[in-house]
Specification:
Elements lengths: L1 H21 L36 H11 L1 E8 L3 E3 L4 E8 L4 H7 L6 E8 L2 E7 L3 E5 L4 E3 L6 E9 L3 E15 L2 E17 L2 H11 L1 H27 L10
Parallel strand pairs: 2-10
Antiparallel strand pairs: 1-3, 1-4, 3-8, 5-7, 5-9, 6-8, 9-10
Length: 248
């Protein structure tokens, strides 16, 4: 009997050992409801995953895009080959996005010598006329708004101040928006050589005004005595002679 009990107890012990080895022991649950062996989750917010930020376009890239989107228009302007010294002349420039070159040319008041071209334009354009041998006065604002319903006109009064061949420069610029700033973009520059003639009367007048001191010292002063003698002799000749034999 004792042998059977011993065998039975031995078998029960082996079964308990096998059961503990096969079935995992549950984690001890803490009073707060979480396992004592399980680490608490972190309360810090998750880190955002890095994302590639858009690369801003370069300044030249912005200008390239603006130039690509510019519209086209036609221009016509006066280009006199000759001008008279110190005589003013009106130079006119016309610009349109809808009219043809022929229409603009026929609209110019002066038909002596005309040049035309097709250029890129914006809604704000600037025209500048310059030349060292000229006095130039702008008769209208050099920067003007441009729109399809009207021909834009520039006018200058140009007076030559030097004789000979003189250069006159016409520069056309589009006013564009770059980084929220209005800046001029030079579209095209025209360079014209004008021959300035001087008349004989203008040459004499210019020579006298420029050499007045020399003329006074070299010519007028030396001949003053001769002029005085001539004047005195003529005066004495015109006076009546004295009559000494006349009665009292």
């Amino acid at each position: 009997m004792r042998n059977k009990l011993a065998i039975f107890g031995f078998l029960v012990g082996i079964a308990i050992v096998i059961f503990l080895a096969v079935v995992p022991i549950k984690d001890e649950v803490s009073p707060g409801g979480t396992s004592s062996n399980t680490p608490l989750p972190s309360m810090s917010p998750p880190m955002p995953s890095p994302s590639a930020s858009p690369i801003p376009p370069t300044s030249m890239g912005i200008v390239d895009e603006i130039v690509t989107n510019l519209e086209w228009g036609n221009i016509a302007f006066d280009t006199p080959k000759k001008m008279q010294f110190e005589e003013p002349k009106i130079i006119e420039l016309l610009l349109s996005s809808t009219k043809s070159v022929q229409e603009l040319q026929s609209s110019l008041k002066s038909q002596e010598q005309i040049e035309s071209a097709r250029i890129q334009i914006s809604n704000r354009m600037e025209a500048d006329l310059s030349g060292q041998g000229f006095k130039i006065e702008a008769l209208v604002p050099q920067e003007q708004a441009v729109y399809r319903g009207k021909t834009t006109q520039w006018k200058w009064e140009v007076t030559p101040t030097k004789d000979g061949n003189q250069n006159l420069y016409l520069t056309l610029s589009a006013i564009i928006n770059v980084s929220n700033e209005k800046v001029p973009l030079v579209i095209r520059t025209f360079d014209k050589t004008i021959k300035v003639d001087v008349s004989v009367g203008q040459q004499i007048s210019t020579f006298v005004s420029g050499n007045l001191e020399w003329l006074w010292a070299s010519i007028l002063v030396p001949i003053c005595p001769f002029i005085w003698k001539w004047y005195k002799k003529k005066r004495d000749k015109n006076q009546p002679p004295n009559n000494p034999g006349a009665a009292d």
